[in-house]
Design brief:
Strand order of the largest sheet: 8-10-7-11-9-12-13
Bound molecules: adenosine-5'-diphosphate, magnesium ion
Largest sheet: 7 strands, mixed
Helix content: 25-40%
Number of helices: 10
Amino acid sequence: MAGTEFEIIQRYFTRKQPGRVDVIAGIGDDAALLRVPAGMDLVACIDTLVAGVHFPQQTSAAAIGHKALAVNLSDLAAMGAEPAWATLSLTLPDNAPSWLEDFAQGFFSLAERHRVQLVGGDTTRGPLVVTVQAHGFVPAGRALRRQGAQPGDRIYVTGTLGDAGLALQLQETAASVLRSRLDFPEPRVDAGLLLPGLASAAIDISDGLLADLGHLLEADDLGAVIEVDAVPRSDAFLASAGPGEAGKPSRFYELPLSAGDDYELCFTVPEQHCAAVEHRLATLPCGCRAIGVVEARPGIRCQRADGEDYLPAGSGYQHFAEDGHG
Ligand code: ADP
Ligand code: MG
């Protein structure tokens, strides 16, 4: 180890942070002492990243630090919550100071941008495992849920889909824009904050659009039609993935539908709020795009621009069984 557990905490994780008035005591006591602002609900989530399972072994320390926090902020975003606090459980083999330095840099630069304060954690020795817990606030009773969509609601996604999946496929040959979508996903916190009161349901896309939209729809026994050509794809994706071929599964169709790791938001909006949502999200770099409509009939049906059905070949296939639960 680069030092004792105490030295590691002191050197890398006890730094000047955005002092939040809702943190009464952060790192350094037996536990963090925190105050939820009046009128707010507390939203809590946790995610563990295991080397070789959740990220390739050769992933940079900065990317691991960023991603461990980003995946949690993405969950908060999907609830419409404003991030506030994080705790970090770090299991390290015997890492070099440079690794810890880079990890902390990746973690804290994202934390600072979202005014998230690291308020505690745990540090142990073992195979590399990073667990981050994040907490945020949402005005009482206003959190976005997976539940709540209605037939006729429009389905939207933020940003672009398929970039991270393509980076994983292309490995070293992936364009740097695609690579950074995989290593440094940008949690859509700002988008999530604009949605309470307008969106009827929301989820973040960590396992692929069809799988995660499937969870949202299953919460109410609903289905959907997705316009597969309307799913937003980045210029970098289009340049590397090649065009879609009629009647054939291809990267062009499969990755945006079924690949994970993009951490965009997918949400449903009743017709009367669609204009407001589009107007609000147009002010953000990620924007949003309508890609389909919720239906009463369970299951997700994919349709191409020429009106033909598209039958996805990807891993989310079981979600398209006729009964919607297959
Ligand atoms: P205890 O033995 O009481 O659990 P520790 O020695 O584990 O205390 O931790 C001391 C302090 O350092 C605590 O406030 C704890 O939350 C914090 N801490 C430990 N590891 C980390 C970490 N990786 N990141 C942030 N804070 C940490
Ligand atoms: Mg401890």
